[in-house]
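Feature request, filed as a ticket because there's no other form

It would be nice if the structure record came with a short human-readable summary line next to the tokens. Right now we just get the raw output. Example of a typical job, pasted below so the devs can see what we mean:
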Amino acid sequence: SKEHREDKAKLSTIVQPDELEGFFTKYAEVMKAGTTALKKRDRSGRKKATKAKKKEKIGKGGEPIKK
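Raw output as currently delivered:
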């Protein structure tokens, strides 16, 4: 976030052209390892809200409610 921008460190790496493919392979491994600890978002509330909206729009007999 903008408040913590000063606390962040910026890194750069110089890679020789002949070592580029190996670098990207290792880089991808590091990035994947960092994402395994992330939790999936809980979307169950979103599904319930969508179902509730659909129920409101459909009247008796399965016909949509006219506004």
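Something like this underneath would help us a lot:
Residues 26 and 51 are 44 Å apart (CA to CA).
The mean pLDDT is 78.
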